[in-house]
Every structure is written in structure tokens, then in C-alpha cells.
Amino acid sequence: MDTVRRLIGERPVVIFSKSSCCMSHSVKALICNFGANPTVIEVDKLPKGQQEQVETALLQLGCNPSVPAVFIGQQFIGGAAQVISLNVQNKLNELLLKARAIFV
After folding, report:
1. Are 5 and 16 in contact (CB under 8 A)?
2. What is the mean pLDDT of residues 20-46?
3. The domain containing residue 26 runs over which residues?
4. How confident is the model at residue 12 (pLDDT cuts 50, 70, 90)?
5. H helices of 34-101, where?
6. Using an 8 Å Cβ cutoff, are 40 and 12 in contact?
7. Between 20 and 30 A from 41 (CA), which of 31, 47, 80, 94?
8. Looking at the 3D structure of the chain, how many domains does it have?
9. Over 80: is that where the pLDDT of 79 sits?
10. Average pLDDT score over residue span 43-55
């Protein structure tokens, strides 16, 4: 849990993902298209024990399902549906600017 909180606190955009998850890929591509450079943690590529710790921590933070889990400006935004919804509402850009993940 401490590792997850530390990462979220140190980076403007953190995405917890799985390399085989198409929704995770879509969320990463969407955020990168704004010019942001998110920190991406591929949970399925972590060592087995660490993988379980991260997934448990994400569930404790309210991420259900555990991936994709997007944090912008140290705030849990949600999964793919929430991020896409924010984009449709033209609010994703504003969040990225506020978090200083993008500057234009």
C-alpha cells in the first residue's frame, strides 16, 4: 500500500495497467494523446508477491476492477469508463492541466 501511495503522490499521472488489457491500452493511448507522459505500472509484469500487494492496495483504494486504475493529481479518477466519460465531457484536459501533466 505504501508503494502505491508513494507513486501516486510523486507523479502527476499514474496508470495501473495490465499489458494484456485492451481497456488499459485505450486509457494509456487517450492520456498520451493529450501530450501527457503517465507513469504506467504494468501490474502483470511485477514479481508475483508484489503483484498481489499492488492489486490488494488498489482494491482498498476503491479501484474495482483493479485495472485500469487512473490517478491524476494524486486523485483516483477511476477506470476506463470514468476516464472516457471525462474526455467526452471535455474535463480530462482540465484535470491534466491542473495536475501539471500537460502545459498547453
Report:
1. no
2. 95
3. 2-98
4. very high
5. 48-60, 80-88, 92-98
6. no
7. 94
8. 1
9. yes
10. 91
User: All 3 cell numbers of residue 54?
Assistant: 499492488
Mean pLDDT across the stretch 19-38? 96
pTM above 0.70, yes or no: yes
- Residue linked to cell 507513486: 7
In a domain, 103, yes or no: no
Q: Quick check: is 104 in a domain? A: no
Q: Is residue 87 part of a domain?
A: yes
Residues of the chain above pLDDT 90, percent:
75
15: Cβ contacts below 8 Å, ≥ 6 apart: 24, 27, 28, 31, 38, 39, 40, 41, 68, 69, 70, 71
Q: What is the pLDDT of residue 86?
A: 97
Give the CATH number for residue 8.
3.40.30.10
Residues 6+ apart with CB under 8 A from 1: 53, 56, 57, 60
